[in-house]
Amino acid sequence: MTMNSVTKKSRNLILALLFLGWSLGNLDRYIMNYAVVSITGDLSLDASSTGIILSAFFLGYAIMQIPGGWLADKFGAKRVLLMAVIMWSIFTGLTAVAWSLTAMIVIRFLFGIGEGGFQPASSKIIATIFPKEERGRAMSIMLTSGGIVSLIVPLLAAYLLGTIGWRMMFIIIGAIGAIIALLYWKYIKLPQEQAVQVERDENVSPKVNLKELFKTPLMWNLIIAYFCIYAVNWGLVSWIPTYLQKNRGLDLMSIGWAQTIPAITTIIGVYGSGFIIDKLPRGMDKVLGSISCAVIGILLYLMFTAKSVSLFISYQTVVSIFIAFVITLLPAIVLKKLPSSITGSAMGVANTGGQLAGFVTPMAIGFMVDAFNGSFDAAFWMLIGFAAICIISLLTLNDQKGKLLNS
After folding, report:
1. What is the pTM (predicted TM-score) of this model?
2. Of 28, 39, 298, 380, which alpha carbon lies 20 to 30 A from 84's?
3. Are 270 and 328 in contact (CB under 8 A)?
């Protein structure tokens, strides 16, 4: 059985279910950036401790990327998907009972371990059931979940934190995860994965190991690019609520309304990027990606030097479009240029860079803010530096090298 035997109706159903899972994962990650304002008050934490809490999830998530992708290739994507949702639902619920900084760090780290296999496994499912010319759009639909959630979370977080509190909020999110796991078990029906492993149009042995992946120059470019763009993304996402509250004087509800504007442009940017990427001629993707990173660097400078909150939000709105394009472009490169038999492993390897950035950046910003007496200027310069490195990584990307790549 091959992807051709999967009907369009079945593909759309699976895509919708994967979208639910991506949305829930994004919900927990985004809402934590608002909940941490209340958590730090309850647990009497400083900025450095806040950064460690925000980073703990990403350390676990990063550690699990490569094993999660390998497990999806080896034992089947659906099994890994189910285990990921079940585990992260358990630890999301356990976040509610954290009583100290240490407990919170351990729970968030284990939460990251639990969720770590979800992205490689779901990416493999997309590569398994969708033809190449539709994979960019399918991935863009998945990634729009981040924009949609970032649109909803600011106001939802402000309401929930002000009514039921952060502990009950995480219990509810964990329960929703259990429901999604049940839906996956019942409704996700995949082709026999061993049959899918050898696609006739790719002429590649499915017995590709991680050592061979790491010998492929394309993978190293992707790892670096993933790290850099996600350093920018998670640096902004994790600290903007705190920045706007402490440095610009906004309350949580005002922050919530202000962040809806960049969130809307992120949704449009990600969804539109998928259609654009699927139609780009070979080689043009890395050019547009590099230009986008250059614009991101310029806009980051304009953001932290903005004289007013409205101007800051305006620049953030524009920068979110270009970040959305690069974040959509990178997984599309994996899905389009590498054999689907190793998509899980390849996505896990590449995304490790992104999740390591999610671990390092929030923590680094926390230490910088403490070191510079509450100023975020050094943090913004660090993010600008990452944008510059991303330009170099994309410009030097060569998809004609390496025996794993399609001709």
Report:
1. 0.70
2. 39
3. yes
83-117 burial, b at 16+ Cβ within 10 Å, e below that, comes to bbbbbbbbbbbbbbebeebeebbbbbbbbbbbbbb
What is the pLDDT at residue 196? 43
189: tokens are 């029906």
Query: Cβ(398)–Cβ(217) under 8 Å?
Result: yes
Q: Write the secondary structure of 184-208 as one string of H (helix), E (strand) and C (coil).
A: HHHHCCCCCHHHHCCCCCCCCCCCC
CA atoms within 13 A of residue 189's CA, in its CB half-sphere: 10
Q: What is the pLDDT of residues 139-154, one digit of tens each?
A: 888 878 877 887 788 7
For 209, the 3-state DSSP assignment is: coil
Q: Which long-range contacts (CB under 8 A, 24 or more apart) does 13-18 make?
A: 13/187, 14/125, 14/129, 14/187, 14/188, 14/189, 14/190, 15/126, 15/138, 15/141, 15/142, 17/180, 17/183, 17/184, 17/187, 17/188, 18/122, 18/125, 18/126, 18/142
At the second CATH level, the architecture of 3-191+210-395 is Up-down Bundle (1.20)
Task: Give dist(CA 32, CA 366) in Å, integer.
Answer: 15
Find all residues with CB under 8 Å of 291, minimum gap 6, and list them. none
Helix axes 343-371, 377-395, angle to 10 degrees: 150
DSSP letters along 162-174, please?
HHTHHHHHHHHHH
Give the pLDDT confidence score for residue 406 in this predicted structure: 46
Kindly give, in sequence order, each residue whose CB lies less than 8 Å from that of residue 186, ignoring residues fewer than 6 positions away: none
Tell me the longest C-alpha to C-alpha distance in the chain: 61
For residues 285 and 406, which has the higher predicted lDDT (pLDDT)? 285
List all residues 6 or more positions away from 149 whose beta carbon is below 8 Å from its beta carbon. Answer: 23, 26, 27, 30
Which residues neighbour 309 within 8 Å (Cβ) at sequence distance 6 or greater? 244, 248, 250, 258
How far apart are the C-alpha atoms of 332 and 141, rounded to whole Å? 12
Residue spans of the domains in the chain: they are: 3-191+210-395
